Every structure is written in C-alpha cells, then in structure tokens.
Amino acid sequence: MTGHPEGEPSKVPEFYITGVAESPLGHVADQSEPSMAALAAMEALEEAGLTRADVDGLFVNYMGEEGSVQVGEYLGVEPRHADSSDLGGGSWEGFVGHAMAAIAAGQCEVALLVYASRQRSLRSRSRKHATAPALPGSIAAQFDVPAGLPLPIGHFALITARHMYEYGTSEEQLASVTVTGREWARMNPKAWRRAPLTVQDVMASDRVCGPLKKLDCCPITDGGGAVIVTTADRARRAGRPPVAIRGWGESHTHWHPHQRRDLTTTAAVASGRAAYEMAGIGPEDVDIFQPYDAFTITPILQLEDLGFCQKGMGGEMFAQGHMKPGGRLPAMTSGGGLSYTHPGAFGIFLLIEAVRQLRGDAGERQVAPKPRTALVNGIGGLLSYSSTVVLTDD
Amino acid sequence: MTEPADLHDPTTTEFWAAARDGRLIVQCCAACGHHQLYPRPFCMACDSPKPAWAECSGVGTVYSCVQVLLPVHEELPPPYTSGLVELEVGPRLLGRLPAGTVIGDRVVARWRPDGTERPILYFDHVSGEGADGPVGRRPAAGSAGRTGTAAGEAAS
Q1: pLDDT digits over A220-264, tens only?
Q2: Most buried among A36, A141, A202, A311, using CB within 10 Å?
Q3: Is B72 exposed, middle or buried (0-12, 13-18, 19+ CB in 10 A)?
Q4: Predicted TM-score (pTM) of this structure
Q5: Domains in chain A: how many in total?
Q6: Residue ranges per domain, chain B?
Q7: Which of B64, B70, B94 sits opposite A161 (nearest CB)?
Q8: Does residue A150 belong to any structural domain of this protein?
Q9: Residues of A whose CB is below 8 A from B12
C-alpha cells in the first residue's frame, strides 16, 4: 500500500465473489434442505473453478442448530474457519465481511456461504399462529407477546405506520414497491409471482395488519443458494468473470421495538457509511441496488438510509418509477423477495443477483448498459440488523 | 403460565408485583434522573449502577399503532389494536389500545388481571380525549397512522 509510486493507496481488491448459484426454488418436492444447499454449493464451486476439497471456510445460518457444523458434515467439509452467526435474513451479506476478515487473517481462502429452506413445503410458518412462542421469562415474553402483534408483520406494520405519520408516505407508494419488483419478475423465469400487477391490485389485496396488505408482504417459498468468496489468486480460476468486493459494513440497533427511539431509521445508515467509505464511493456511483424487500417499507427505508434520497422521500422515489426497468437506479432486479423468491431468509439471493447483473449474466432482465457497481443491503430481524456490500465488475 | 413470574427473570419481579397492584413502575437513575425499561443493572444514560424503581403516572403518547387482522392468540380474536406508547417519562411499552386509536393520541396505562403472575397491559384514552382524538388539530392528514376502521372491533 505505502509503496505505490504515486503515493496513492492500491486499487487492487483482495476479495472476490467467483461463484454463485441458486438451489431449486419455489415449491421443491424432490429435495431436502441439506440436499438443496449441496446442489447450490456444487454449482457455485463449479462456476468458481473449485471443488469441495478447496472449501476451508463455511458460513451457514438457519440450517439447524450449529448450522455450519451440520452442513459441513453433509458436504464432507471440515473447515478451518466456521461461522454459524445468526444475523437474520441479512446474515449472508454479513458473512461476506466475516469471510473477508477470515481470509485477511489467513484463516481460510475459499469461503462457502450457503442457505436452503423448504419453508413453503414444510409450512413452518403457519398463518394460524403468527408468533413463535417466546422463551419463558424473556423480555419478549414479558413485554411484547401480550400486546398480540403478529411476528414479524406486526412489527413491520408499526414501522410502516410511523413512517406514514412522520413523512406522509402513502399506501399507494408502498404498493409501488411491489409493482417495481413485479416488473422485474416478469422477466425472470425463476420468479414465483410473474403475473402483471398494478398499484390498484396491491391496494385491493386483503389487509392483514395496519397499513400492510397481502401484497405488501413477500410470499413464502422454498429455495436456497450458495456464494463463493475467495482471494485474487483463486479468482483467476473462475469460469465466469470474478466480481470484486469493494466495500462492506454491518451494524445492528435493537431487538425489541420499544428499544429503538427512531424506528424508521435503520442500521443501514451505519453499515452503508462503512461500506461507502471502504469502497471510496457514494450513492451517486451506484448503478444497481439490491434492497431486502420482505415487506414494502424496507426498500423505502434502505433508499433513505443509504443516501439515495432525503429521509422520508423513499416512497415517492419508488412511485416515480426510478427503480423499475429503464429507471435511473434499477433495484430488486430479480423480482425481489416480493415476487421472485423468499424462503424465510432472502439475503443470499441479493448477492447472487448482483453478481449476475455485474457479469452480464442476467438474461432478459439484464440491466443495460451493463452495470459496473452494485450496492447490496441485507436486513435481519425486525429491521434490527443491516449489512451493506459494494460489488464491482473489476 | 403456571410458574412464578420471577422464576425465569428475577430482574422484573418488582415490576410485575407492582403491575398486579395496578401500578406501573420504571427504573429511574439516582445520579442523572434517566428513566428506563426494561430493567437493567446499569443506567443506559450515564452507566451508574443499580437504577431504582419509581412509580409513574402511566400517561403517554401513542408512537405507533396498528389494527391486527391476523389471529395471534386464541383468546384474542382479531380485529384489535396494538401499539407502542411513549410514556411521559421516556420509556416505551407495547400494549393493547382502544379501537380507532391513532398515532399521537394521549393514553394512560391500565393493567388488566388475567389470572397469571403478569397482568395484561392496556392503554385507555386520557379522559376527555376519546377514540375521536384529542381536542385540536390532528398531527397527520389523511389515513396516515390510522389503525383502520373501528367497525367490528370490540372496545377493550
């Protein structure tokens, strides 16, 4: 770094994503969760020009107790660096940075990030009982559960209602988030919901909690994916152009809704600031954006908190169509969690789509001209956790 | 709930004992006066140890609220309204709210015994400020913050 002839820091990135893959998606009747994870892992490794034997870092969430241990056994991987951190649906964005740290510390060279769930087939989120029983004596059991808010939608509804109150965000603007994703999903043959959709359709869907209607909420699908994070040296073997990891950050703010003073501002502020600073870019340099749209309020908050618009203007920005195909900031280009797939956790799919867009591999929905810089923001918990990743095509 | 309330969380024993007595208590730091909930063994504002319990009026303002249309608890058929209330002394609590409550409404805490060690927290509108709202200008135009039509929703 200090030896650069012009005295500037080296621009050579040290970390790459070299393989991405989805498992079967939608309603998966012929695979188990571990087998889906394995199918995605093998495909991602093949794309990266690597094999199972090369994997020495394993990053897993939600695949049972001690997830990386269970998946490691299934894959026959005994890693030098293991991470089963539970950071909610945004864990895989978090894992990108954790893998960078592990690689930088010499603890691994080939990090496999993986996820699979058959949440739709197994119906583990029954509508009949919308809350999982909180542990007896936990803060949630004492202070949250008696109020009767369904999880997670009731908490997202509270945040949505507050955003509407503070900034005048409308239900039509929320609906435009779903419509934006759907316009992309119509060009993605793997998307779960592909039928044409209007703001009026979303507005007419059944109200489920507060301002949120059925089509403000993601579907529950089966699905999984895998991502390979590795070194510049290993990236040379990749079958597809490697994607450079230029910036990363993470943070979390709260677990219980009563502990966050400003419920409409998220940890994306901190994780975004760190990622922009590391990458040496700002929001004006971003070509495509992959927000975490489990509910329509989330991409609105992410737009604001990551500096794409003033606080409170995210809903209007969506309604103006800037994130749609042909817009100035294409977002949710896979169709997003609202239309493409949402097997409980959506984080890994944001990385997969960003990489495909940066390589020019996205088929009919490929953004043109081919984007060079992607911003990915994973969210976990009840808008509790955020990790931001900056990816570029060189 | 058959076990004593303090079996799993000894730090809230006093809070629930007060609740059974119809009182709402919050932690108050002797050093800086900061109020906090849930209880912790230190002050979130100034790090002083052992904040003491103090009784509060239970009056607060609705920070956010929603009408719930999904079944959550068997004993609580939808629709009903729940939300976050910011107490005058600072801390926020989740509780059940009267039908038609909107953000900004002034409410007061009321414990409703349910035969367990931990009564259920309800909020009523401060007297004279019913579900149609406090006297004066509504803080938000249109439907923003409104919890939906009160039609069919039982008053709690």
Answers
A1: 999 999 999 999 999 999 999 999 999 999 999 999 999 999 999
A2: A36
A3: buried
A4: 0.92
A5: 1
A6: 10-125
A7: B64
A8: no
A9: 142
